[in-house]
Each structure stands twice: as structure tokens, then as C-alpha cells.
Amino acid sequence: MMDQQTHRRRRLLLIGAGHAHAGVLRSIAEMPMPGVEIILVSPSPGVPSSGMLPAWLAGHYRWDDICIDFPSLCRRAGAQFLLEAVSAIDPDASQVTLASGAVLNYDFISLNIGPTLVPPAHAGLKLIPLRPLYQLQQPWQDLQDQVRQLAPGSKFAVLMVGAGAAGVESILAMQHALSVLAPQVQLRFTLAGAGSEILNGIAPIAAHRLERRLAQRGIHVVRNFSALRCEGDAVLADDGRALKADCVFWATAAEAHRWPRASALLVDKAGFVRINHTLRSISHPNVFAVGDCASWDTPLPKAGVFAVRMGPVLAHNLRAVFAGEPLLPYRPQRRFLTLIGTGDENAVASWGIVGFEGKWVWRWKQRIDQRFLAAHR
Ligand SMILES: Cc1cc2nc3c(=O)[nH]c(=O)nc-3n(C[C@H](O)[C@H](O)[C@H](O)COP(=O)(O)OP(=O)(O)OC[C@H]3O[C@@H](n4cnc5c(N)ncnc54)[C@H](O)[C@@H]3O)c2cc1C
Q1: How far apart are the CA of 50 and the centre of ligand 1, in A?
Q2: Given this model, what pLDDT does residue 116 score?
Q3: Closest by alpha carbon to 374, among 44, 52, 45?
Q4: Ligand 1 atom closest to Cα of residue 292
Q5: What is the CB < 6 Å shell around ligand 1?
Q6: Which of 109, 113, 84, 110 is nearest to 99 (CA)?
Q7: Distance of CA 22 to the CA centre of its chain
Q8: Mean pLDDT over residues 111-139, rounded?
Q9: Ligand 1 centroid to 47 CA: how many Å?
Q10: Ligand 1 pocket check: which of 21, 113, 373 to mutate, most ligand atoms within 8 Å of Cβ?
Q11: Mean pLDDT across the stretch 107-124?
Q12: CATH of 10-116+255-323 among 3.20.20.70, 3.40.1280.10, 3.50.50.60, 3.30.1490.20
């Protein structure tokens, strides 16, 4: 079905309810863009903040407390919210195809679709990918109900595949929640990472503190485990080792969505959209891409803080292209703060080569995350 509407107003499509688009909508709510029809396409109305997701897993928040309500943000910005997913883009024709088959034209488009995860086929194994975040609510609720109802003395094993910050923070949170919920159960937690080190990219001293926490909490760490496939109730590594579990969470490195790579857009080797310093696609100037789905000339860490900081520059540049005005460059910060909760109202901070931890770090993290959410409510 073609987009039959002959739109006199020029159209801006915002694809994905990501961190930067939250900032763009907020900016448009404060200062509208007259003459521009704005449509946000997202497969989910409420989108959890990734920074707060582990604290929700740990049981410190309700789901609604950690979500940004994008339909209401769109209403404030005078934008249309479309509950859909994009399945293809034709940047030469300035068109996207939605999962429903509908086609939308655009004058300018901005992609803030984050990364994805593609776990192996897993018949017979309960496997829950940590992305997309909005799909985690029900599986985690179901798992907690299942474990809570287990008979005293029964065993239950949880495996986290992926030992980056998200995997470590999430397994610590899960261990905290399940131990409180089901003290009668013999719980076993395993964290498997592909490299010899875990938590690459954060200060070694912070990584060391987190490793100590994992050990204190009885979480078994398996290194050099390059997960390849699933068989029965086990995940197998490329060297033939197998890890069995009753439930597997998948938190491996960020992967690019297939549909931008399948288009004429210029992407990097991994499939992320190549952008210039004004956040525009290098191959198609009426396409912008931000956050984890974009590829900078020197690779940026896949972290929400970059997507958040791109928001104001993107908001300015989207106004500028419609007004025919100069664009601003985005300048990524060289160091960034990482705050990793340990599930028990404690957190570890990493800043450059510095690392420290404490209950106060956890409270600091909550203040930052809650301020971000409050700004978009
Ligand atoms: C458990 C966990 C904890 C994390 N904690 C932190 C942290 O504390 N600090 C930090 O900096 N980073 C953290 N990260 C990393 C962070 O989540 C990502 O770097 C960040 O979400 C990237 O932001 P983004 O705006 O690029 O994309 P996202 O936040 O992923 O948003 C992309 C949006 O696009 C939507 N989308 C996807 N495909 C389509 C489609 N085809 N059509 C339409 N919409 C689509 C998605 O549904 C999603 O809402 C964490 C990650 C995880 C998994």
C-alpha cells in the first residue's frame, strides 16, 4: 500500500524511540517546527530507559517508572506517533516500508533505532535476549513467577551470555532479585564472556571491583567462551564447551539491524550507518542517523550517553535543514562516566582510568537516570 497522502507540508520521519529522538521531541515541544509534519515510528509506545533497566530487574522500580511515554511526548511536540516498525528503506526514493507493508515518503529522515541482538536458534531452551528492551517485561515477570513457585531445595540455573557492562549489571540485578524472591531455591548463576577479560572498555580498577562483587555473590565467570549455538538445554562454544541452564539471557555485543545494510545507505563493515560530523549519512544527505545505529569515523562506544548527547545537535540540525540554515557539528566527549549497579543499591563508577564504588554511587546514578526520565515526561 502506498502512502496516498499528497502532503503539502514537508515531512520529517523519526524512526525509533531512542534517546536522541526523545531529546528532539522535547525540543520541538518547546519550540515547534511550523510547516513540518513530524511522524515518529516505534514498535512500542513505552520505552524503558536502559540506564534504569537493571534497577528494574533488581526489583527497585516498577516497569512504568522506568519508561518514557513516547505517544504523550509526541502529542506535546505536535507529532504523530505511529505504532509500527520499519522493515526497509529506499534512500534513493526517500521512502521507508513498514512491517505492515505501508510505504511512507519523507523529505528528511532520522534513524535512532539502536542496535539489535541475534541469538542462535534455540529450540527447547528458554532464551531471552536483552534487546529489544521493551520486550523484556513479560519474560522477566514470568521467570520470577516460575522461580518463586519452585519447591524448597530445587535447583535453578541462570546463564548470561555476554560479559560487557550490560551483561554484568543485569546478572547482578537478577541474582539480587531472585535470591530475595526465592530463598528456598538453590540458584546458580553463570556469566560467560567471549574474551579472556570481562567488562572491556571500563577502567580496570572498576572492572576489578565488579569482578570481586561477582565472586562474593557466587556468580561463576566463564572466560573465552565464544557462544556459537544452542543444543537441548545448553549453549555451546566454538571450542565445544557446553554450559547448561534453565534459562539463558543473551547480552552479546551490539549488532546492526539488517534493513539499513540491505539498502543503498553507506554502512560500515558491521552494518552501522556511516555519518559525518553533522550526524548526516555520508551517502544520503536527507538521512540522519544517531546513537548506536550510527558509525562515526573513529568508532564511538555503543553507550546511551552518546545518543543522549547527540539529541540537541540533531534537534538543531533537523530544524536547520528545513530552514536552509547551517548545521552544527557534534563533538563526542573523549571520556564518559559509566555507572554500573550491583543490584543491592550499590554501584561502581568508571571514569577514564578512575574507578570507585559505594551506596552513594548508586544514589548518584538514580538521580541522573531519574532526571533524564523526568525531563521527558
Ligand atoms: C541492560 C542494559 C543496560 C545498559 N545500561 C547503560 C547505561 O547505564 N549507560 C549507557 O550509556 N548505556 C547503557 N546501555 C547501552 C544503551 O542501552 C545503548 O547504548 C543505548 O540504548 C543506545 O541508545 P539509542 O538511542 O541509540 O538506541 P535505543 O535506546 O536502543 O533505542 C532504539 C529504539 O529504536 C526502536 N527500533 C528498533 N528497530 C526499529 C525499527 N525497525 N523501526 C522502528 N523503531 C525501531 C527500538 O524499539 C528502540 O526503542 C545499556 C544496555 C543494556 C542492554
Answers
A1: 6
A2: 95
A3: 52
A4: 26
A5: 15-20, 41-44, 47, 50-51, 53-54, 85-86, 112-114, 130-132, 134, 166, 169-170, 257, 291-293, 302-305, 307
A6: 84
A7: 14
A8: 93
A9: 9
A10: 113
A11: 93
A12: 3.50.50.60
Three-class SS of residue 222?
A: strand
Q: Which residues contact 32 (CB under 8 A, 6 or more apart)?
A: 77, 78
pLDDT band (50, 70, 90) for residue 2? very low
Spell out the residues 6+ positions from residue 34 whose beta carbon is closer than 8 angstroms to its own.
Answer: none
Instruction: Look at residue 201 in the predicted model and tell me its pLDDT.
Output: 87
CB atoms within 10 A of CB 176: 22
Residues of the chain with CATH 3.50.50.60: 10-116+255-323, 127-253
Nearest CA to ligand 1 atom 38: 113
Task: Quote the pLDDT of residue 122.
Answer: 82
Q: Is the pLDDT of residue 56 over 50?
A: yes
Please state the CATH superfamily assignment of the domain spanning residues 127-253 in this structure. Answer: FAD/NAD(P)-binding domain (3.50.50.60)
Q: Which atom from ligand 1 is nearest to the alpha carbon of 170?
A: 1
**What pLDDT sits at residue 299?**
87
Which tens digit of pLDDT belongs to each residue from 245-293? 999 999 999 999 999 999 999 999 999 999 999 999 999 999 999 999 9
Given a cut of 60, is residue 4 above it in pLDDT? no
322, 33 contact by CB (below 8 A): yes
